[in-house]
């Protein structure tokens, strides 16, 4: 899909690889330490992580870039970057914060058992961006700082992993509670909100193969009208639009981050007919797939430079 002789660089994928002989499966450090370690240019580049990253801004203001969207952050802001998302720390240097890096399998074994039974994990219900109140932000910051200090205890790795797992579970639970309490009134616990939550989780799991709202309603055991009301109340769009938005986001990720052909991308997200995908993408993104890819190329080239 590129002209002969033109080299299209993918956004770099980063695995969990702590520096030196660090023995733990969860790492915590300050953004300022990372900036000194890798340099401002690399920090401002765009990467896709094979792990999860929790950012807690503690000083200054900055703008993060997550999946084609700018996210303004101030002291207290929390940002959860999941696997597969494209993320850049931006060009601003006059800010700092804590970074918590971990792989999803580091979560508590009991949580993994819960996932197998209900499909819900410690990461479900957590927003990408959250702005807690000052007192709540202070509690989160103290919890992360304590975890950071505990990683330096020098205890046996098995004991440290057990301690950090419980601390991480408590931290994520606290963030989920803060997010729920920030929602208006008791809407977060209403039946309609719970129905939308179930729908949201199913879309994330099945968007590449289930393109119609009827399939989700059938799986959830509710009518399409009930699903439509819940989705409109919670997300402000109907189920079809919500599903389409997730599909087109995945298409954008693949167009911007990989060298896959448009036909391969279409197949990956459930379009057997390329022409249907072409029409779908143009309608949803307001440009063709190749126009979108070309728009990303200058950014990709600068992001993919040495380092």
Features:
307 residues, Jelly Rolls, Arc Repressor Mutant, subunit A, 2 domains, five-stranded mixed sheet, five-stranded antiparallel sheet, 12 helices, 10 strands, 15% strand, disordered N terminus, AraC-bd
Distance between the termini: 26 Å
Provide the low-confidence segments as ranges: 1-10, 110-120, 301-307
> What gyration radius follows from the Cα positions, in whole Å?
21 Å
Inertia-based shape: globular
What can be said about the biggest beta sheet? 5 strands, mixed
Q: Could you report the average pLDDT, rounded to the nearest whole number?
A: 84
Helix share bin: 40-55%
GO molecular function: DNA-binding transcription factor activity; sequence-specific DNA binding
Protein name: AraC family transcriptional regulator
InterPro entries: AraC-bd, Homeodomain-like_sf, HTH-like, HTH_AraC
Keywords: DNA-binding, Transcription, Transcription regulation
How would you portray this structure in words?
This protein has 307 residues and is of the alpha+beta class. The protein has two domains: 171 residues, Jelly Rolls (Sandwich); 116 residues, Homeodomain-like (Arc Repressor Mutant, subunit A, Orthogonal Bundle), CATH 1.10.10.60. A hairpin with a 2-residue loop joins β5 and β6. α4 runs antiparallel to α5, α6 crosses α8 and α9 packs across α12. The longest helix has 26 residues. 24% of the residues are buried. The N terminus and C terminus are likely disordered.
């Amino acid at each position: 899909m590129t002209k002969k002789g033109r080299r299209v660089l993918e956004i770099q994928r980063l695995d969990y690889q702590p520096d030196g002989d660090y023995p733990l499966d969860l790492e915590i450090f300050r953004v300022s330490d990372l900036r000194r370690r890798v340099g401002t240019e690399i920090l401002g580049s765009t990467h896709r992580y094979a792990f999860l990253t929790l950012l807690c801004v503690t000083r200054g203001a900055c703008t993060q870039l997550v999946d084609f969207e700018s996210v303004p952050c101030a002291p207290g802001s929390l940002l959860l970057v999941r696997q597969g998302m494209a993320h850049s720390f931006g060009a601003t240097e006059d800010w700092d914060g804590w970074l918590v890096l971990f792989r999803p399998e580091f979560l508590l074994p009991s949580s993994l058992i819960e996932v197998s039974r209900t499909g819900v994990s410690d990461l479900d219900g957590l927003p990408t961006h959250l702005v807690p109140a000052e007192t709540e932000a202070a509690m989160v910051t103290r919890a992360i700082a304590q975890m950071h200090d505990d990683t330096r205890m020098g205890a046996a790795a098995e004991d440290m992993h057990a301690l950090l797992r419980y601390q991480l579970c408590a931290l994520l639970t606290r963030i989920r509670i803060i997010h729920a309490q920030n929602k208006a009134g008791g809407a977060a616990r209403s039946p309609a909100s719970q129905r939308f939550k179930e729908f949201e989780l199913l879309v994330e799991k099945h968007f590449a193969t289930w393109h119609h709202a009827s399939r989700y309603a059938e799986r959830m055991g509710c009518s399409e009208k009930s699903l439509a009301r819940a989705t409109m109340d919670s997300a402000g769009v109907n189920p079809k639009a919500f599903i389409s938005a997730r599909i087109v986001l995945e298409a954008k990720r693949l167009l911007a981050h990989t060298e896959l052909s448009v036909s391969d991308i279409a197949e990956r997200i459930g379009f057997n007919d390329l022409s249907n995908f072409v029409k779908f993408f143009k309608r949803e993104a307001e440009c063709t797939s190749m126009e979108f890819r070309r728009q990303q190329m200058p950014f990709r080239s600068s992001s993919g430079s040495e380092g």
